[in-house]
Amino acid sequence: xxxxxxxxxxxxxxxxxxQPLPPVRRRATEAEGFVLAEDVFAPIHQPPWPRSxxxxxxLRAAYSAPGAAKRVVATICAGSCYDxxxxxxxxxxxxxxxxxxxxxxxxxxxxxxxxxxETVLLHRALRPWENYCFTGEDYRxxxxxxPQGTRLRGLALGLLAxxxxxxxxxxxxxxxxxxxxxxxxxxxxxxxxxxxxxxxxIYSSNAxxxxxxxxxxxxxxxxxxxxxxxxxxxxxxxxxSALPGCDLVLTTGGVSVGxxxxxHETLPLLGAERLFWRVRLKPGSPLMFxxxxxxxxxxxxxxxxxxxxxxxxxxxxxxxxxxGCGEGxxxxxxxxxxxxxxxxxxxPRYVRGRLTDGRLSLPAGxxxxxxASGLGTNCLAEIPAGASCPAxxxxxxxLL
Length: 400
Ligand code: AMP
Ligand code: MG
Fold this sequence. Notes:
Elements: E1 2-5, H1 7-17, E2 24-27, E3 40-41, E4 56-59, E5 69-76, E6 90-94, E7 106-109, E8 113-115, E9 119-122, E10 144-146, H2 155-162, E11 171-174, E12 179-184, E13 189-190, E14 202-203, H3 206-216, E15 220-226, H4 232-242, E16 248-252, H5 263-269, E17 273-279, E18 288-292, E19 295-300, H6 304-323, E20 332-337, E21 349-356, E22 359-361, E23 379-383, E24 394-399
Parallel strand pairs: 1-17, 5-6, 12-15, 12-16, 13-14, 16-19, 20-22
Antiparallel strand pairs: 2-11, 3-10, 4-6, 4-7, 5-9, 8-9, 17-18, 18-19, 20-24, 21-22, 21-23, 23-24
This protein binds adenosine monophosphate and magnesium ion.
Magnesium ion (MG) is lined by residues 186, 230, 253-254, 260, 302.
């Protein structure tokens, strides 16, 4: 087991420990939210024929000139075609999205004419291919439309539909929806619906926060368990029974060096292969990563903000690795601190922040046990190790 490793090393180990799940075939119409496990190529040109980008008149550029009059031989709306001849003194009236007739090489905008349905007077000359959308302007048949690893939503689904790939008979290879088990431990915890807190007890918040984040990321929660205890054999049993129905296990609590940090006792009971423990960052440094029956088990600190932050930094890349879709980290941008951050640490520190227009403000509360100061924040600001950062310092911000 590696100990006390850098964030980068931890990410590298997480990614190399897991393989993307074996692909399954799904009807394309039912694949929203899934990650493609194959490259998808365009079966057609889009658009399939040259089309008019505006309302106007199609004609032959060589015969255009200011003041030239043309006879309108047809009026074509989007959805119909005109394949007939168009002579030097003729034009075809077109609406936006209509096919440009084969004999025409440009379209003059309605506003550049005195146009009617019988004749049209041009106000200017046109160059060949002016206002002309070519066949395959968007993509050509055979082009790589969506590479494997693309999550099918929004624009990607629009692209599939545009290429005729959302026909009912089309199937795609995708990664199965991830199934996670989330298990929160701790003697001091009581269920969130307990009417009154007993002495020394707190409500468990991690399960609610992390379950919601997992669902937001499209993960199916097959097991959501709070043990309300620090009992190693009981936790081992809970993990053991969760394993067959999930692709990964997340736990919170019990990973530090205290008397009740039971993961150290639990993992041997599970025959787990421990890959790393403790990462050089704040908060959440006692992060632990193991494999149990070949499945990843990521154990987060129980401190609510530590659990939330290390979820974004480590659990998301793990989920992405299982789905074969990119690095999974939040998007990083450069941002300028709008006030001093004088606290120094010997390790990089990830603090909640609010980024607006490149300016980053950090709330007052930074402790790993605090949740309230995170409300309204939209990123994790990365304060480099050793640095004290005066206002105006540029730091990296991970957008959440
Ligand atoms: P641990 O990681 O078990 O050492 O817990 C660190 C801190 O986080 C302690 O103050 C715990 O009481 C608190 N904590 C652990 N689990 C939870 C939870 N599910 N919800 C809220 N706080 C928790
Ligand atoms: Mg504990």
